Amino acid sequence: MLTKQTKFILAIVLQVVIVFGIIIFKVFVLSGGTDILLRIEPVDPRDMLRGDYATFQYSNISNIDSYISGGQQIRNGDTVYVVLRQSGKYWMAQNIQKTKPLSGEIALKGKVASGGIETRSDGFSNQRIHVVYGIEEYFIPEGKGQGFSFFNKEAAARVVVDESGNAVLKQIFIDDKPWP
């Protein structure tokens, strides 16, 4: 039988292992992934409870036309891979699929939040599929986000993507300059 002290120590050790596991995963993606630049549309620059942070969608990959799914039955909650292609300095969605893409293709793994076939009136409507990737929030150092506005500015995010489609947000750029 484990004592209360042993249970407490095991609980602390488990939490530390989980935190370090997350950190090691992010470092692995950052060190072995491919850098891409995505255009962003900021949504919310500040929250009274959480402080300064930016919540945004990606212009060319968050809301995807359903016709590029190639007729696949994509449902809300499905894990999907959005295959990207470079167009100028930014990357954009080429197609969306439920299977991992071929080696050599750059794709982001995400979850369908809305726009799946159960929300469309017919299978052929030009509904947009909303995909979230887990890289839609960027925490800003304290005090750096106050008084800042994204209005009339070009915003972009440098994201690192590994071969499995996992992504880590590396840096935000405003008018081609690192921010904050």
Characterise this structure.
About 15% of the residues lie in helices and about 40% in strands. With about 180 residues, it is of the alpha+beta class. The protein folds into two domains: about 1-30; about 35-180, no CATH class. The strands form two sheets. A six-stranded antiparallel beta sheet has the order 8-2-1-9-10-11. A five-stranded antiparallel beta sheet has the order 3-7-6-4-5, with no helix packed on it. The relative contact order is 0.21.
Topology, element by element:
Layout: H1 4-32, E1 34-47, E2 51-58, E3 63-65, E4 79-87, E5 90-97, E6 107-114, E7 128-132, E8 137-139, E9 155-161, E10 167-174, E11 177-179
Antiparallel strand pairs: 1-2, 1-9, 2-8, 3-7, 4-5, 4-6, 6-7, 9-10, 10-11
Pick out its properties.
1 helix, 16% helix, alpha+beta, 180 residues, five-stranded antiparallel β-sheet
Approximate helicity band: 10-25%
Mean pLDDT score, rounded? 85
The structural class is alpha+beta
Rg estimate, integer Å: 19 Å
What's the helix count? Answer: 1
Low-confidence stretches: none
Sheet of most strands: 6 strands, antiparallel
User: How many domains comprise the coordinates?
Assistant: 2
Task: Summarize the helix and strand pattern as letters.
Answer: HEEEEEEEEEEE
Distance between the termini: 53 Å
- Main-sheet strand order equals 8-2-1-9-10-11
Extended strand count:
11
Overall morphology: globular
Strand content: 35-45%
